[in-house]
Amino acid sequence: MLTLFHHPLVASCRYVRLSCAEYGEELQLIDEKPWLRRPELLEMNPAGTLPVLLAEGDTPIVGAGVIAEYLDETRGALMRERRLYGDDPFTRAEVRRLVDWYLVKTDNEVTRHLVRERAFKPLMTSMQGGGSPDSAAIRAARANVKPHMKYTNWLAGTRDWLAGDRLSYADLAAAAALSVLDYLGEVPWEDYRAARDWYGRIKSRPSFRPLLADRAPGLSPVSHYADLDF
Questions:
Q1: Which residues form the GST N-terminal domain (predicted)?
Q2: I need a surface site. Which of 49, 97, 110, 189 has the fewest CB within 10 A?
């Protein structure tokens, strides 16, 4: 069994969990508080970032993108129509572009700021950067939700799945990022019907069920978070 060092409200960790589940891989999950920079984590990844996957032979594989490539090479290449990168180079290029959009651009502009201010800082000491939430950072992140949702709505309204005609890593990356925001109650789904319908399909997949059971210390999800008929 593979082992994943993760935090339940880090989008890139959710992406890896969804990817492994879609490929039928069970995971042992080890919760990490990334601000603690535990020596055990730093030994595997000197950067101290998540996620880290312990693969066969307890070999650490660091970072969501690298883990996804590893899974594609060791599992996806054998999956044919279930391969999450797609079969042709142009499809794979589009999938990679959208994975970068949601795990890098959306994270830099929205997700990580809301998670840090609302979920992490209350648990951190002042020496670790904790304290009262930065209202300016929260306002800026919330302002950035709208363009990301508009783009997701356009993708969902013009394609069967976000990168094309079948489920891919792009859908899992978007679902990972938006599910974190949904946990925090930061997504105005009523304004984005196509995105909501797409998210409902993702949310109903067996791979998503463990995420619906996630609970972060000191911060409960919004009431509709686990509701498939939200």
A1: 1-79
A2: 97
CA-to-CA dists, residue 110 to 146, 198, 203, angstroms: 10, 20, 21
Tell me the average pLDDT of the chain.
Answer: 96
Contact in structure between 18 and 172 (CB atoms under 8 Å): yes
Positive or negative, the CA dihedral 71, 177, 54, 47 is positive
d(CA 227, CA 230): 5
Residue 34 CB-density burial (10 A; 0-12 exposed, 13-18 middle, 19+ buried): middle
In this prediction, residue 57 carries a pLDDT of 84
Residue 2: strand, helix, or coil: strand
Radius of gyration for the alpha carbons in the chain, expressed in angstroms and rounded: 17
Question: DSSP 3-state assignment of 161?
Answer: strand
